[in-house]
Fold each of these.
Amino acid sequence: MRWIGLIAACLLMGCSGLHGPVEGQSQTRNNVVSVDWDGNYYPLPSNDDVKVDSDASFDALKPCYRDNSSDACQDELQRHLDATTAHFDAIFEQILIFNQTEGGKKRIVLYIHGGLNSRNGALKRAVKAAGQMKDQGIYPIFINWRSGLMSSLGDHYFRIRDGQLSRTAPLSSPVYILGDALGTVAGAPVAWWKEAQHAFVSSVNREKKDARLLTVSEDGIQYLNPDNEKNTSELLRTTWWWVTSPVKIVTTPAVHTIGKPAWNSMLRRVDVQFVRPLDFPNGAWETGVKKRSALRMSASPPPENEPMPGTGATLLFAQRLQAFQEQHPDYRVTLIGHSMGGIAVNRVLQNVPDLRVDDVVFMASADTLDNFLHTSLPYVERQLRKGRDVRLYNLFLHPENEDREVSAWGFSPSGSLLVWIDYAFGDPDYILQRTAGRWSNMKEALPLIKVDVRDHVYFKVFGKTKDKCGQPQKHGAFDDCDFPFWDRAYWWQ
């Protein structure tokens, strides 16, 4: 179990904020908005040979974590805001130059990746995809946020207590680690039962269940069934599940117990992209001085038409994008979120409601059906009332691939990350709290979609195939290979 060893090493020695360097990182500085673990923007270096310091902003803002009412804090906050604004200005200046001199088509794609992405992996994806998109006249922006497993667990054990940053958290970390260890043992029967139940449900009468799921005859629903679907080796996958079952007896309780706080930490890291801990009087270390907010919020609520008073990097960028649109209304915007990036996309739609997005794309969204119904669809409805043409695309794995995905060579519980969220991490109390990125969930919610927006919502379910680069076959594969995830033909054809 290599990942367990990595977690232990990280927790014992600390996880370095340095990563990279990645070839081409300097050329994509104006295509990447990097966000640290507390929602602060941090810059990419201007040299391909220099390592990226993802803790740079945290280190610079330490006076505010200690005392967010001090003059040193206020000065540092202003310097950080000035640096953030300067970079965003440079991005939009480059967008104009690109469309004036490099054959741009006045189309901007904003992409937000999901959880369990390494910093290097996210940056490499941005470097590769940015070149491909620019060749097609598209200007890409990638929101790269800290979503790694080890650093998320580090928050749980060493930084966060009761929703706040805590300087005393390391003192209680042995208790938390012991609690999780004991919880793994105590929760083993429930974890084993859930895994056995899922294995049974996802295998018995599989063909009949899939036939029922994939025969909804409505406009706006598309199924891809390649010719070689029947050649996929289901027997081999089932056999391997039984071979690895003895190891799963150990790993399943561990995943259920340790995965939940990691999931909660990653959810926090989505939230802080919009409102940082430093935006609250009590957001600094809990033992610090808390006389006033770093934002200096007024006692009365802001007016309805005022922007949300947060300073998370993703929120600031989305607000700046809206301002750019007001000055240049002929630019089209596509907003794409993969997995947990779908949660961030809904935060954008909710917190920057006047942002004009032409295409919203959810790839295996980890957000809930509830948020799909009460955030995504109302955004479409508002845009249509304003006379704007907007499309909402939803992409899904084949249900069997979703339910029986193999990870860690089969030594971890079967199923995709969305299955793990539904069965273990999210602990939903009713169906609308289940993930919107599983077709078996979304199909149940179709009758709840209002008629007036239905013609603007599209669902695409990929098929099964041996060719993993023909169509995505795993949860993390939607932006793998050379899939043009920014292309409308990928969302609908």
Amino acid sequence: MQLSEILRMAFGSLAVNKLRSILTMSGITIGVFSVIGVMTTVAALRGSIESGLNILGSNAFQFQKFPSGFNTGNNMRKYRLRKNITVEQGQRYQKLMEGVAEVVSLELYDFGGGGTQATYENRKTTPDLTFGGGNQHYLAANQYAIDTGRNFTESDVELARPLCVIGVGVVKKLFPTEDPLGKSIKVRGRTYTVIGVLAERGTSFGQSQDDIIIVPISRFAMEFGNERQSLNIATQALSQEVYNETLDKAITAMRIARGLKPEDENDFEVFSNESLIASFAKVADAVAAGSFVISGIALLAAGVGIMNIMLVSVTERTKEIGIRKSIGARQVSILTQFLIEAVTISLIGGLVGIILGVVAGNGLAVWMKASVIFPWMWAGIGLLVCSGIGVGFGFYPAWKAAALDPIEALRYE
């Protein structure tokens, strides 16, 4: 028999039992969908992660009370018992690092309940602003730039002037038709004069980076205190070549500022862009591993289902096989036909799973404001795995069909 004739008969047999074929394919579809969906999401988010977690400038690191949010296995009680890093400690650290680091940014944020809202005359923002205090190095350390107006000066911070710089998201809500510079806005019952507007940053992880208001850190600490908040300190080395040396000196300076004795362990955390990305990578790898386990179980069950359906098909078509053998069909032709049927069921299920997985994964990525991708490598691996399942679980039924005795098969009822 020619291959085209074998293919025609295989597809024709599948078409006869459409519902059974579709149900058998669904097991493969579910298994492939789970792994392709997860891997598409992870792959699409990696680019967003590397830029979104790039919250520090180049050659930079940061000190804070708690470890990064991706370190989920930490004993959080240990970190809650630590004393907050105060503005006074941050200022002492800043003096110790003079001449050693290019940028030392002191940062405090308002994490009080109820959200933060800004008002101007009869206009209001949504109550989800990022509101905090920073010194003159805050913008450089967090990769913000001034679009119009100016940044804080050293004297603004020293004198705790009631000034603020705002993001374009705040401008659009409070000053849709007028220049915001020089205007006074209210935040949490306090009045601040706008001196600068930040260049647009867009969103990261679905969170706007333009709905932000920053005031001098000394003013923030004076009006809101920092008993409930712990200071973040971002430091930028002079160059990549002196990064490690700067980090060592910074840790020593931080220990001095915190009043630690030589035998005391560090009561603060240090992280960089690389450590944040590495922490996320661990979480992503764990999610991917879990997806592989779930997909493996689903694909194994789907393979067993394919074998079962093909065995049923062989039993139902025993007489057909006997007739074909009696008029000259070779064993290899029978074997090839049933293998093609098994592989076709597996591949079609895999293709549907890939399409659904890519759509679902990219849908989640779009919601997270990440770029849309097509995971060619994982799609190729998925098709190869599906082909292997079709051959592996379809071979025994195909061999059984090919090995039937034509006389016995013709007598089968």
Amino acid sequence: MNRIVRQQFKGGGIAIAILLGIISTPCCAVSNETITDNNYNIEYRIPDVPERTSFADETIDLTRYDMYERYERELTAACYMHSSTLLTIKRANRYLPVIVPILQKENIPVDFIYLAAIESAFNPLAYSPAKAAGIWQFMPTTAREYGLEVNSDVDERYNVEKATVAACKYLRNAYNKFGSWVDAAASYNAGTQRITSERNKQGVESALDMYLVQETSRYVFRILATKQVMSSPADYGFRIRAHQLYQPIKTRTIEVTTTIDDLAAWAKEQGITYQQLKDFNPWLRSRTLPNKSGKRYKILIPLTEDIYYDDKREYRTFDENWIVKD
């Protein structure tokens, strides 16, 4: 196997390099171009950029200088931000079995899993400084607009299933407005009004041709680069085995239409801990579940026989391309 890094360290140099994050392993899908750190004789290889890529069946030409450089920036970041990329893939194995069927049912291209990847790294507890929350990073106002309950007791932005349905509604509306899934993706970051306004002001059709703030300008290219790495992680040095992926955990569902005054006591009655209740239902935001209206809530209860990693477990892999078997 080729290595991205060749090192000739003395004394504690290897440990120092690891702490600095400058040792990397991998990579078949790299060019011969290198950058060398002469102090440690470390060689960094630059990932290859394809001539074109696609998103939701829309082809994107990467040969133009700005397309090439914007894509390469995000691809390089995805390859060298090791812990973030690894955690994204490991979590994806748990949550994509929930997310993908919803995208398919709602007729949203499955490539939008990579939008969720860059939004939250598939962390259902993700919360941004701007107060966006959950895997799909909804702001409170937008979440309510698309049918999610958001308050101090219940915040359905943290409900993976409901938030995914809401994201599908948003993306469908954006696609109907722009006629492009790429522009729909860009609008998820900038908002549909901003993309519409800049289309008119700049006289261009594609969001990729617009002059936008850095965050939005980079956004779609981050999605594209994440798709490339997650489509074949081993090519970029991420050598993962099935037992290292976070496993989906089987659950049973309890429907509740009344108030629960003490969620910790209620969890104990179901044979689980309060922590486990919160892990599988992060949308429960307080210690109680007030329900004067009689709304029907679905609470997931993990099956105790499926919560352990051991040699008896059948390890499930959502995408065989993610793992190595040697």
Amino acid sequence: MSDRIRAVLEQRIVDGTLKPGERLIELNIAKEFDTSQTPVREALRELEAVRLVESVPHRGTRVRGVSRQEMTEAYDVRGALEHLAAELAAAKFQGDVAELRTIVAALHDAARRADGEAYARRNSEFHEAIVRRAANQVLLDSWLALGFEVRVRLMLARHKQLNWVEHAAEHDPIVDALEFGDGALAGRLLREHAESCKRRWCELVRAADDCGAEEAAPTEAPAGCLS
């Protein structure tokens, strides 16, 4: 039941039915699903773990809104983590990137079909496969904490004008570099990919050219709106 509740609430956040700042009342949710509040609390904890909601003492649980500053910082962290992951994993991928080729083929297929759910899943699988091959648990835990699969789903659901096919193509040269065991190149390409994602987000929210500018007014976005 908690899995079902989490999935439904997650989808409502993704499609905009639940908006940033909206309160999630445990009792009302329990009544909707004809259950006790225990699975509701568990579902909300899972959503909080991926930073879709936040709980504040004496104020309850609400859908998160993410500031521009947090968004741009998250892109920077992603780029740094994946740069390191590629350098650590390159020797293990050298001559053996069949897993990545399969994932990227599915990613291209999802992009052509404009299937946001499949695209987000395959995109997450691709990046996670590289981070896992680095065999560094602290690195993996840090990367997983960013929750990119849900973030990509949110971004694609809210901004359907994106060129998915073009964005999927950015993954191909990364695989080529890893196949040759070139961790420096693969790492640089992954960092550049994160930077291009950050630039796209800035364009989508019509932020200033310098997204980190202190003087610019902060832009609020739905939680997890990252590519």
